[in-house]
Amino acid sequence: MMQNQLFYQIALTMITGVGNVLGRQLLQAVGDAEAVFREKTQVLEKIPGIGQGLIAEIKHPKVLEQAEKELAFIEKSKITTYFISSKDYPSRLRECQDAPLLVYFKGQCDLNTLRIVSVVGTRKITEYGKDVCEGLIAGLAENLPGLLVVSGLAYGADITAHRSALKYQLPTLAVLAHGMDRIYPPIHRTTAIEMLENGGLLTEFSSGNRPEKPNFVRRNRIIAGLSDATIVIESADRGGSLITANIASSYSRDVFAIPGRINDTCSQGCNRLIRDNKAGLVSCAADVISAMLWDVPVTSKDHVPVVQTESFFAGSEENEQILAILREKKEIDINQLSIEMDMPVHKLSGLLFELELAGPIKKAPGNVYKMVQ
To answer: 283: Cβ–Cβ under 8 A, 6 or more apart, which residues?
Structure first.
């Protein structure tokens, strides 16, 4: 039964003209992926955005043929898949409007772990950038063991981040701009294989998809969406990592940048992000930890937050106000709470995260928060 579901989930991603947003609309209208293919034409016609041309694509036999080949490939390659409705699908990514319907994963790591950061930057990283990147990740590893480091396996900042994470025994995930039937660039294959033991590889692209230019922009949104924060190590004024930073910002995720000398080409993008208030200035792991409110006690065994009483927050008017509202409302989504608190969501999310770590509140699906019973 599960394989049958997976077959149709893969097939849904193979339909020409059905992207991630329209795919979600189809699922909402008919219930599940299999129903998309079994539903009568008259029913499909009533779904907004679905016309005769798209229905013909849904009914085209090539779709199921391609899905059958892909299913055989992932079974042979021992690849794990996560569908948008699966409980194991990366929860941070699912919050993004354009999240992929299906992702392919190979490796050993928790995609819903407590803390995740993306590290991006120029392919032409300098020695300064390498030193800063390794130092940053070394500091994160020392203070936050278990933190997942995400990047794109590209030359420069990406591969430096992955190798630094492996060096300091942090799990690290590469988001690919192609299918799982290849590694690009090939020179990074050894590192990619090493990552399978502590981290892994993730992509939305089925086998046969090559690393073509448009795929990298699509890849970048996943890098941004998977993470709590994106850190830009070095970037030219028009570097591709700035796209990732802007996407992360559009997802209401934190963005940080490493400053550099004003005349250095590889620092111009970072300096501009900081100047335009699009990124917070960080120079070390301590800056990131402080900005993310991650400097709270955790157990050494499994990094689960230590539960503390509400008195921990005595004197914090904002936290007490949040707790008072939750006691009254029982539960509330973050947007409504933002209105009641008259506070931006990005600031509120940090306070909520701090409270959640400490124990008095918990997060439910749909960005809903409630008191712990």
So the answer is: 132, 258, 259
Q: Along the chain (373 residues), what's the average pLDDT of each consecutive run of 10 residues? A: 82 93 88 90 86 92 96 97 94 94 97 97 96 97 96 98 98 98 97 98 97 94 97 92 95 95 94 94 95 69 38 59 87 84 76 74 77 74
The pTM of the full predicted model, rounded to 2 decimals, is 0.78
What residues form DSSP beta bridges with 340?
Answer: none
Look at residue 15 and give its three-state secondary structure. coil
The sign of the CA dihedral 343, 115, 139, 202 is negative
Q: Cα separation of 313 and 44, whole Å?
A: 53
Q: What residues contact residue 119 under an 8 Å CB cut-off, 6+ apart?
A: 133, 136, 137, 149, 150, 151, 157, 158, 161, 230, 231, 233
Which fold is adopted by the domain 2-72? DNA polymerase; domain 1 (1.10.150)
Q: Return the domain boundaries, the chain.
A: 2-72, 107-291, 310-371
